[in-house]
Amino acid sequence: MTQSKRETERKYEPPAGGVAGLPDLTGVGPVASVTAAGPVELDAVYHDTADLRLAGASATLRRRTGGPDAGWHLKLPLAGDTREEVGAPLSDEVPEALRELVLSRTRGAELRPVVRIRSTRAVRQLRDAEGGVLAELSLDEVRAESTAVGGGRAEWGELEVELADGVHAGLLDLVEKRLRKKGIVRADSPSKLARALRDTGSAAERSRPAGVVPGSPGSYVLAYLREQVGILVALDPAVRRDLPDGVHQMRVTCRRLRSCLRSYRSVLDRRVTDPVRAELQWLAGELGVARDQEVLRERIGTALDELPDDLVLGPVAARLRVWDVSRGGDVRSRTREALDTPRYLRLLDALDSLVGRPPLRPKAAGKPARTMARAVLKEYDRLAGRMEHALARPAGRSRETALHETRKAAKKLRYAAEVARPALGKPVARLGKRAKAVQQLLGEHQDAVVAQDTLRGLAVAAHGAGESAFTWGLLHGRERAGADARQRELPAVWRAASDPALRAPLRH
After folding, report:
1. What three-state secondary structure class fits 98?
2. For position 81, what pLDDT does the model report?
3. pLDDT tens, residue by residue, 368-378
4. b/e sequence 433-442, b meaning 16+ C-beta within 10 Å
5. How far apart are CA 79 and CA 300, in angstroms?
6. Smallest Cα–Cα separation from 48: which of 202, 248, 191?
7. At what angle do helices 426-464 and 316-339 cross, to 10 degrees?
8. Is 459:476 a contact under the CB 8 Å cutoff?
9. Strand, helix or coil for residue 214
10. Most confident range, picked from 208-217, 238-247, 295-304, 439-448
11. Where are the alpha helices (DSSP H) in 162-269?
12. What is the mean pLDDT of residues 88-106?
């Protein structure tokens, strides 16, 4: 059994004089009073792999005793000063639920104790006028020791300011302003674990890939790949816990990675990258089943909610729920099963190897204005060819299929432009923006086409059960009208995207 919460905090060097050196924070924003609590003795053993894969990904896993929240705590990085903390009850071994949530980072490597950190904590609670806790200031005396034989020891002081749930992050800025007036500055380490690893001599050395020339096509492509691999790994826990939009975002990340590897074959050796692309396609396919189900459920449910009551005939809401439940459990299980396979872990290993030991080709060290512009223009030419073919098809299923393929080409152009934007700037950004407009229009068209097939099936099932199929037919007609409207809009959107002036700066 796990519980999750978000924590927003900042760490500072301790004030001279300890607790006595803290400024009076009464009157800072909504702070009406400050109360004392503690001291508390905390004892935490941090677990990681032998090569510190969790620490390298800014994640921490600890078993802590003492204080009000004794137990296992997994902290995963989010944006800014915020992290997600997933807790589990105290036990001797790492809980299986937490072991699964770090699998994308550990890739199955053994978790073992790496550092023990003991803290003596004095707490000051910042309260509002009603007595509610807004934030806690924790002044810690920290003692750390490596668990390795002959490992080092370290001691330091630390001030931590953590917001209570639901409190606006702006309070942190106000508190920091008051702290700085007393000469209290941010700590130079993002977490106790990071400092403990550094000061006990346990930190792993991390190096950049050799042979990458700064400012070269290879450097830009690898920076993009490294970012996307990090996003893929970080999304794994959200998908396992069925959090909103997790599957969608992981699927999009797979597509971005595949597209980058395809578009920049002149930079990276395809003999290495093509097998990785194939495995990314497999993973995206496994995720796609769940995502498609999610999109259809939301689309049809929203359309039903918007209908006047007199146009809803029969048990349509109940039938939609039955359809979703009958399919939803299977697709979610399929997604989870894919993430638990050795194949998935091998893919993560391959991605890690790709960014760590990139198979660079000679053009990787060339001029980005030439190599990367050529890759983007090649994707544009492919899109233009697909668009010409699609618009020449007669109305009906063949054109719908061709437009779906055109949408994929627009997506590849958009992603190729994303990779090149840091190197080529505004010209490629404008082209990518127009490609995105084409992609989104064709995405709306494809969603309407897929929804028609689903609604037709629901209508047939309703009719077979002796129910009215009127509402399903009405929604089907609206989706068809929507798809037709998107097709009528397409030529104008394409003219904007195919303007030669957009590509001219990339050809010089």
Report:
1. helix
2. 85
3. 889 999 999 99
4. ebbbbbbbbb
5. 33
6. 202
7. 130
8. yes
9. coil
10. 439-448
11. 170-181, 192-199, 217-240, 246-263
12. 95
Span 149-174, average pLDDT: 93
Neighbours of 109 (CB within 10 A): 16
Nearest to 94 by CA among 80, 118, 114: 114
169 DSSP assignment: T
**48: closest CA among 141, 99, 108, 113?**
113
Backbone dihedral angles phi then psi of residue 364, each to the nearest 5 degrees:
-65, -25
CA distance 438 to 414: 10
β partners of residue 116: 45, 145
User: CB of 199 within 8 A of CB of 206?
Assistant: no
Torsion (CA) 425, 225, 112, 73 in degrees, nearest 10: 50
Residue whose pair of structure tokens reads 């030669």 in the numeric block: 500
Answer whether 361's CB lies under 8 Å from 266's CB. Answer: yes
Sign of CA dihedral 188, 194, 200, 202: negative
Say if strands 112-127 and 133-146 run parallel, antiparallel, or are unpaired: antiparallel
Rg (CA), the chain: 27
| Orientation of helix 397-424 relative to helix 426-464, angle to 10° | 150
Contact 98, 61 (CB under 8 A): yes
With vertex at residue 80, the alpha carbon angle to CA 182 and CA 414, rounded to the nearest 5 degrees, is 150
What sign for the dihedral angle of Cα 493, 494, 495, 496? Answer: positive
DSSP secondary structure string for all residues of 448-487: HHHHHHHHHHHHHHHHHTT---HHHHHHHHHHHHHHHHHH
Long-range pairs for 321-329: beta carbons < 8 A, 24 or more residues apart? 323/458, 323/461, 324/293, 324/297, 327/293, 328/293, 328/297
What's the pLDDT at 327?
72
- Confidence label for 355 from pLDDT (cuts 50, 70 and 90): very high
The answer, yes or no, to whether the previous bond of 39 is cis (omega within 30 of 0) is yes
Q: What's the token pair of residue 218?
A: 């290879």
Cα angle, residue 472 at apex, residues 466 and 476 outer, rounded to 5°: 145
C-alpha 467/C-alpha 312 separation (Å) is 12
Residue 34 buriedness (CB in 10 A; 0-12 / 13-18 / 19+): middle
Query: Whole-angstrom distance between the N-terminal and C-terminal Cα of the chain?
Result: 60
Q: Given the DSSP bridges, would you call strands 60-65 and 33-48 parallel, antiparallel or unpaired? A: antiparallel
Residue 330's pLDDT is what? 63
